[in-house]
Design a protein that fits this description.
- The protein is mainly α.
- It has two domains: 1-78, Helix Hairpins, CATH 1.10.287; 80-114.
- Helices cover 79% and strands 0% of the residues.
- The chain has helices spanning 3-14, 23-29, 32-52, 55-75, 80-90, 95-112.
């Protein structure tokens, strides 16, 4: 089991933990919107460190981003396994091809909703 898989399992277990006993449980108890907000904050902090060029700080912020991404996913009942399956599905597909396919699906979905 990878470190990310272990972390995802701990986060999943914290969904039923007492919010007073765990930062993760407290964050999850605040709901998916707060989890998404925290993920966004951490992503911005990582971007800032990437621009500054401080490898140690970027490494620390990247770890925070991964943790908060997993919390945000857990808040919406999306598993790490599902994300990894999606990455595996995309493997070997040109990034440009994948991006175009997503844009085409989004456009089709919007048109069907009208």
């Amino acid at each position: 089991m990878s470190v990310l898989e272990e972390l995802a399992a701990v986060i999943e277990a914290r969904k039923v933990a007492d919010p007073e006993s765990s930062w993760t449980a407290k964050l999850l108890a605040k709901g998916p919107e707060k989890c998404a907000e925290k993920f966004g904050e951490e992503a911005v902090e990582a971007i800032i460190e990437a621009v500054k060029g401080d490898r140690a700080r970027l490494t620390a912020e990247a770890a925070d981003v991964l943790y908060h991404l997993l919390v945000m996913l857990a808040a919406r009942d999306v598993t790490l396994a599902e994300v990894l399956e999606e990455l595996a599905r995309r493997q070997g597909v040109s990034g440009l091809t994948e991006k175009n396919a997503r844009e085409t699906r989004a456009l089709k979905s919007r048109n069907e909703g009208q």
